[in-house]
């Protein structure tokens, strides 16, 4: 096919993720009862009337949907991690919530990884009742006004690579945020370089 006839199909975000669930109540008890996602929509699976189709709001208005069947029982065996399979799903939580996760999972007897330092975020992993690995992740930064987390990440990546560092960490993020602010926000100053107003150097 000629390159001039090929066009991209531009995506604009995740619309929804659909998972194969067990019985209806297990889905409600986990997605709303553990992760706090409001249960917002309920109808049959329009392609298979033997299944229910439950919809949950993960917090950003996108959707997590679950196909359910009362004849299926929860199986906590690890879901496939073979090529082509879903390894895990990550959900965003605030720093305030993140540092409560281990304690709240412990209170339910749910095994977890404990907090993991990812440089640009904190993560914790555990499995849902059907063996799917869930990650709760919390960014360690807020993007500047008018920018997205992805904007900060790509600039931090470029800074990291230029410096020859192994992974993105807080310094790269801070420098990326400073760079984005200088690019996107105007100032009356003609020289916006760092200054020492204390006269010490």
Automatic annotation (TrEMBL):
Keywords: Dioxygenase, Oxidoreductase. The keyword Metal-binding does not apply. InterPro entries: Extradiol_RC_dioxygenase, Glyas_Bleomycin-R_OHBP_Dase, Glyas_Fos-R_dOase_dom, VOC_core. Residues 13-139 form the VOC domain. This is Catechol 2,3-dioxygenase. The keyword Cell cycle does not apply. One of its GO terms (molecular function) is dioxygenase activity. Gene3D superfamilies: 2,3-Dihydroxybiphenyl 1,2-Dioxygenase, domain 1. It comes from Citreimonas salinaria.
């Amino acid at each position: 096919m000629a390159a001039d006839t090929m066009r991209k199909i531009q995506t604009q975000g995740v619309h929804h993720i659909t998972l194969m669930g067990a019985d209806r109540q297990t889905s409600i008890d986990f997605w709303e009862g553990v992760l706090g996602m409001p249960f917002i929509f309920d109808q049959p699976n329009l392609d298979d009337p033997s299944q229910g189709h439950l919809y949950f709001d993960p917090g950003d208005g996108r959707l997590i949907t679950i196909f359910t069947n009362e004849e299926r029982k929860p199986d906590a065996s690890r879901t496939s991690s073979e090529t082509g399979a879903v390894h895990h799903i990550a959900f965003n939580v605030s720093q305030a919530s993140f540092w409560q996760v281990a304690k709240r999972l412990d209170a339910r007897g749910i095994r977890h990884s404990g907090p993991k330092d990812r440089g640009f975020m904190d993560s914790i992993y555990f499995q849902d009742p059907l063996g799917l690995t869930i990650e709760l992740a919390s960014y360690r930064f807020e993007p500047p006004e008018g920018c997205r987390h992805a904007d900060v990440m790509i600039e931090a990546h470029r800074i990291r690579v230029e410096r020859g560092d192994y992974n993105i960490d807080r310094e790269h993020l801070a420098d990326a945020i400073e760079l984005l602010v200088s690019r996107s926000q105007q100032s009356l100053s003609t020289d916006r370089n760092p200054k020492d107003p204390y006269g010490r150097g």
